[in-house]
Please model this.
Amino acid sequence: MTLAAARAVLGEAAEVRDIGFEQALLLDEQTTVGASASLTSPGIVDLTVETNQAGEQTRHATAVLHAADDEQPPAHDMAALLTAQPCVGDGAEVRQRLDQRGVQYGAAFTGLAAVHTGEEATRTVLAEVALPAQIRSQQGAYGVHPALLDACFQSVAAHPDIQVLGEDVLALPLGYPSTPLLQRGPQRPLLLHAGDENR
Model:
């Protein structure tokens, strides 16, 4: 939703920054979801996502939309990242651990194929994500398909800092710093590199 709002308000060259999640958004036929945007300065828009259920408004997420140039972000050295993170885990195992903590995923949300982690010095996770075959034809309707974004979030459970918290902890992302609107390319698996940028 935020990616679509950025494109609608600022054009194709836009970026979503400082996304924060405040409440889980559980959709049903009675819940109305809306987004409001306000221009704070040229090229910068504050976005809020809210629901209205039985007259009660709840804020679920916030973000800041920025106008951006047309340059693509610099490419990562994927061979070097894979070498630095030699431990490979199955995405199905990550979902099984989440299932044990009460988070169940349907077939459309099985896009996390594998996670790559390193030794203790490497505080990042590299995730292989792709839309499942049964919903792959929907990709063209989105900047980033929600199920693909969810697969990225699932990889958080494999991060070394989360693993040390133990089996009884359910760790969920509360936000992330930025998402550029990239040129849509061929439908192939993507690699997501996530970690603590302050380290």
Observations:
- Residues 182-187 have pLDDT under 50 and may be disordered.
- Strands lie at 14-21, 32-41, 44-53, 56-67, 87-90, 112-117, 124-129, 175-180, 190-195.
- The radius of gyration is 18 Å.
